[in-house]
Design goal:
Order of helices and strands: EEEEEHEHEHEHHEHEHEHH
CATH topology: Rossmann fold
CATH class: Alpha Beta
Structural class: alpha/beta
Number of helices: 9
CATH architecture: 3-Layer(aba) Sandwich
Number of domains: 1
Strand order of the largest sheet: 2-1-7-6-5-8-9-10-11
Length: 286
């Protein structure tokens, strides 16, 4: 089985039978536009789901530092627009691939092409996800399955390949967008929340397995953020500003750590929500 992905104006046939990532040796890229100074190496950053609101905002900050970026998303026009903006902001290098990340069979060679284009990998930022529609998912499992596939299955596939690649090289950071929705199931979005809960558990286990190999796994748990994905939702005016969220995430990746709630108040909010007894919680309207 194979899948077709558009890559740098060329059509590549991705063979899903490839058992490993056929990657050449990483070569660091020197950035003369980094805000940290010309002597610093530009970090090689792979962004999966690059047209999501949070990912795009993070990429703008990385571009202004002169980082090296490889962007993957499914909307070709939006991806091209994001890439062009990042180039004008000072990114050392911007490459793109148009791909449907739900297609897990295409992941091995897609990742191989990306990492080869970067000349190695310092950070992978995994930002794919969909809220879906909870009412539809309650009535039809096909809708629920799609939400679960995108938010958990597809992400787990990418992380398995990336985790093994980084572990073999004893280096790298995998920063992954989960959600506070995964901390406790609520009737308003329990399908999406359960997928994110599974993703957080997967990341915890992956961290436990490969942290000793020098790989950093960061689970990022945003609360509600004003982006295109949340447009039209009730109470959107109270949601966090996407640029502030991105700044916190970029700083968090720089500092290191295992779990990042953003904004930070959500760590306390979810602690309180998790401690409510089930006999009480089941009667709430959350």
């Amino acid at each position: 089985m194979s899948a077709v992905v558009t890559h740098s104006a060329q059509t590549l046939v991705l063979n899903s039978s490839e058992p490993t990532l056929p990657l050449r040796r990483a070569v660091p890229v020197t950035s003369s536009s980094s805000s940290e100074g010309a002597a610093m190496l530009s970090r090689r950053i792979l962004v999966l789901g690059a047209t999501s609101g949070i990912a795009e905002a993070c990429c703008r900050l990385w571009a202004e530092r002169g980082e090296t970026l490889y962007l993957v998303a499914r909307n070709a026009d939006k991806l091209a627009s994001v890439a062009a903006d990042l180039r004008t902001r000072g990114a050392a290098f911007v490459e793109t691939a148009v791909a449907d990340l739900d297609n897990t069979s295409a992941h091995p060679e897609l990742l191989a092409h990306a990492i080869n284009a970067l000349g190695g990998l310092d950070i992978a930022f995994v930002s794919l996800g969909t809220l879906g529609e909870q009412p539809k998912a309650e009535r039809n499992f096909n809708d629920a399955a799609q939400i679960i596939h995108t938010n958990f299955v597809a992400a787990a596939s990418l992380l398995t390949w990336l985790g093994n690649y980084c572990a073999q090289r004893h280096a790298g950071t995998l920063a992954v967008l989960s959600s506070v929705a995964g901390d406790r199931g609520r009737k308003s979005n329990y399908v999406y929340g359960s997928a994110k809960a599974g993703l957080s558990a997967f990341l915890s286990g992956l961290r436990n397995r490969i942290d000793r190999d020098g790989v950093r796994i960061m689970t990022i748990k945003p609360g509600p953020v004003r982006t295109a994905m949340t447009q039209g939702m009730k109470g959107q005016e109270k949601f966090a500003d996407v640029n502030k969220v991105a700044a916190t995430i970029v700083k968090g990746i720089d500092r290191g750590g295992d779990i990042l709630y953003v904004p930070g108040i959500w760590r306390l909010i979810m602690l309180v929500i998790r401690t409510v007894p089930e006999r009480v919680f089941k009667k709430t309207n959350l």
